[in-house]
Amino acid sequence: MFGHYLTTTARRAIVAALLAASSSLALADPLSYHVEIDTSQYSGAGFLDFAFIAGNAPVPGATATLSNFSGAFGALESQEGNVSGSLPGMLVFGNGGGYNDWFHNVMLGGKFGFNIVFGGDFLNAEGMAGSTFGVGLLDASGVAYLGNPAGNVVQFELMPMVAGLPATVSGSAYGGFASVSAVPEASQWLMLSGGLALMGLALRRRNGRTA
Asked: Do 64 and 102 contact (CB within 8 A), yes or no?
């Protein structure tokens, strides 16, 4: 009876740990995201325009690191400001300066994807304004926007600490062909996988005693 109580209590504790872990995955303000842009409704040549722009007031430093690119990328068209790297490898943007931009040729008609991770001083420093990281989709002229006539199809707003409140990162996608999804931190995945492993062990022990 006492052993059964311990087993039941352990199972409840494991379930509680799993619920807590899954809750943290859903509620945590993440710094890592996966972005997908579906251009299947278009065809021919076009451009993806990646830009990191700081606000007018003093803004703490911030970085945006892009990696794991997929899709029909062509050659680099232009590069401006605080951005370095190469495709399909990694791009690192800073928000220093007025305009930090990477303008790249693409072949429309398929999906494009990449991961983006934000970091920098804005996470632990107060500021009067934030920074915006945006991705625009343009036609072959490099002037007319596709998907969102007003501009970016994907956009992230980075706000530094304000009056002691924590910094925030919020992502949004325009229309149904672009998506932004949070990528959990490694520590969160470790917590969740550890809870699953404990649950599996408890079930194996119970089944062994039953047999």
From this structure: no
Give the distance between the most distant pair of CA atoms in the chain.
76
How many CA atoms are closer than 13 Å to the CA of 92, on its beta-carbon side? Answer: 6
Q: Are residues 13 and 101 in the same domain?
A: no
Whole-number Å distance between alpha carbons of 199 and 65: 36
Q: Who's near 27: CB < 8 A, 6+ residues apart?
A: none
In angstroms, the CA 76 to CA 103 distance is 7
Handedness of CA 185, 167, 157, 67 (dihedral sign): negative
My answer on whether 100 and 204 are in the same domain is no
201: confidence class by pLDDT, cuts 50, 70, 90: low
- CA dist 178 and 185 (Å) reads 22
Same domain for 146 and 42, yes or no, is yes
Report residue 131: phi and psi, to 5°.
-130, 155
Q: Could you identify the residue written with the tokens 């920098």?
A: 120
């052993």: which residue's tokens? 3
**Structural domain range at position 119:** 29-183
pLDDT in tens, 79-98: 999 999 999 999 999 999 77
Tokens matching residue 203: 């079930």
Looking at the structure, tell me whether residues 17 and 77 fall in a common domain. Answer: no
Cβ-contact 167, 126 below 8 angstroms? no
If asked whether residues 93 and 142 sit together in one domain, one would say: yes
* Residue 182 bridge partners (DSSP): 33
